[in-house]
Amino acid sequence: RHDCWTALFSFGHERILTIDKTPLLLQDSDLVIFGTQRHGVPYMPEVGQGRITVPIFFYPDQLQMKKQWSTLTDPEDPRASRELAKLKADHGLGSGAVD
To answer: If both were cysteines, with which of 49, 72, 75, 79 could 13 make a disulfide (CB 3.0 to 4.6 Å apart)?
Structure first.
């Protein structure tokens, strides 16, 4: 457990990340940002492929602290928020890229 926040980049085969005992499936090129919660990657003997995780530790600024519990959608209103619509639009910008 750290006293700072973590931006965690995951590359390679899928793995489970637990944050305060809540499982989250990390896939190739995922980014997860979390605070000071307990976290870990449980042993998965059935997985034979590799994975690389790049952690970046940082201290949040005042704006990040203010919005730390905000979500992209409101459970009371299932319509997409402006933040979610922008995220989806930005994601679509690279969809035409060719490897």
So the answer is: 49
